[in-house]
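Appendix C. Worked example: Succinate dehydrogenase flavoprotein subunit
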Amino acid sequence: MALFTHDVVIVGAGLAGLRAAVELAGQCDVAVVSKLHPLRSHTGAAQGGICAALGNEEEDSPLWHAYDTVKGSDYLGDQDAIEIMCNDAPRAIIEMEHYGVPFSRTPEGKIAQRPFGGHTRNFGEAPVRRACYAADRTGHVCLHTLYEQSVRRNVRFYDEFQVLDLCETDGVICGVVAYEIRTGEVHVFNSKVVMFATGGYGRAWKTTSNAHANTGDGLGIVLRHNMPLEDMEFVQFHPTGLYRLGILVTEGARGEGGILKNSKGERFMERYAPTVKDLAPRDVISRCIYMEIAEGRGIGPNKDYVELDLTHLSLKQIETKLPEISTFAKIYLGVDPSKNPIPVQPTCHYAMGGIPTDVNGRVVIDEKNTPKIGFWAAGEAACVSVHGGNRLGTNSLLDLIIFGRRAGKDILEFVKKTKGIMPVQENATDNAKARIKALLDRTSGESVGKVREDLQRMMMDNVSVFRNEERLSAAQNAIKDIRERTKKICIQDKGKEFNSDLLDAIELEFMVDYAQTVVECAYNRKESRGAHAREDYPTRDDANWLKHSLCWLDEAGNVEIKFKPVNMKLANEDPRFIPKERKY
Ligand SMILES: Cc1cc2nc3c(=O)[nH]c(=O)nc-3n(C[C@H](O)[C@H](O)[C@H](O)COP(=O)(O)OP(=O)(O)OC[C@H]3O[C@@H](n4cnc5c(N)ncnc54)[C@H](O)[C@@H]3O)c2cc1C
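Step 2, the predicted output written as structure tokens:
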């Protein structure tokens, strides 16, 4: 075991973690610990864009952006945070350009912009071109650019170190316990500050656009330290995953003019969202696809998918603006999108909920927003909350760079005024070591794969686009059973080097923890809002439910839920932001 000491330890090398690291580099001693090589972080899979009201292609304003984000969130997003993000977005994009991001260009050489779901001009009048992009590889280029900037600034990277636990002394967070994947050694990082930027957690569902690593480890660790998670019931399904596989086809395909069709060849979104049609937000379109399928207008032998039609776009447009998704469709489904429509179905995509933070990335631990000393979080693992009940496309990459940077600035202040590093307790590694030992010692039991598959199928069947009391109570029972089975898992590999069997088992334990909070919060919220659609409570109920859920998990596996008010700053200043029915 080694003891590494740094001022700041950032867990996660996606865009949120790297943006914070770039802010801190050169000002204090910062380390980034990541279970993956940084360039394998899920940010690299982001396709469609990153938005800002630059107004390069047509008139736009940060106020319209804020309006769309508040409305898109189904009024659950915190309006102080949304205002900060939308106002700061144009500056942040230019900064990314200066760091070296190779954005696609307009003929005059400005950053090109395309329309995306839910982004509109003049308070909902018509779609607006707000998403900046680099073909359909936007996340890839942003991640590479910030990794280069981090390396250039001598940020210390610990690649393939999997964090298993937090160190806490006298209520102060002062480090992490990490497993070195190459050697099987357990190490301690002791620091003034820990920041979690551990990304999304779509892997608890069977059909998902998320990478294999998106297993919510950060959330599981937070729950195990008796800290709450926020708004866990809000999980976004993206309307266009490749049929059966869930691999994403970016909304940028519809931004470029693609349209969704049912078995009758109808452009069905015209009926549901007459103004913005195929560019309605994701929660709305995913529900419409399910309704088309339920009413018998699905396509294929099982009538269980719809089609995304790009055949009317020019070959040049597909080749220059959508090269990656075009290749995916050809490789995985054998479909050439310039000749035939692509079979698609909704896929689990993005988690609006996560570790609660304030607008400076400080983790908060109760309904009064009390900060946890020494602990910050940003990115998809965190909940600021700018996305509320439903995230608009391209607002996540933006969230990462805005709040990653703000967390970096706030952390720097804290590091400067904090003398000395709180030592970790002698028993800091006991918990992690006991978990590993239990898994290595057990000689019989079920495989990780079997239990994980049952969890994923159960979440897909009971806790996806449409929910109801019956399915959610079935999920409550099922998850208790899965928790018990997880305690008895047997792994085959008992070695020390690259033991992925062991790490899969540990990830599954975290998945069960956060999946249970999703189930319980979804059961508890008796209304429909954003991505949380209850068949038995089909309307939004602002009188009773315009509030965030906060949930805690105890050692026995029981979830406690409390509530926190939504920040309504903009609605208090401007009547256009007052909650009303969401129409598109
Ligand atoms: C296919 C796809 C396409 C998308 N397209 C877009 C888009 O076009 N526009 C947009 O705005 N958003 C998009 N999103 C959403 C967006 O990409 C993600 O929300 C965002 O990239 C998450 O970034 P992050 O920095 O929070 O985490 P990630 O990029 O997921 O990185 C997480 C990091 O945490 C590390 N980590 C996790 N657990 C541990 C652990 N236990 N120990 C050590 N390290 C750990 C990982 O190694 C990794 O480095 C897309 C998402 C997907 C899945």
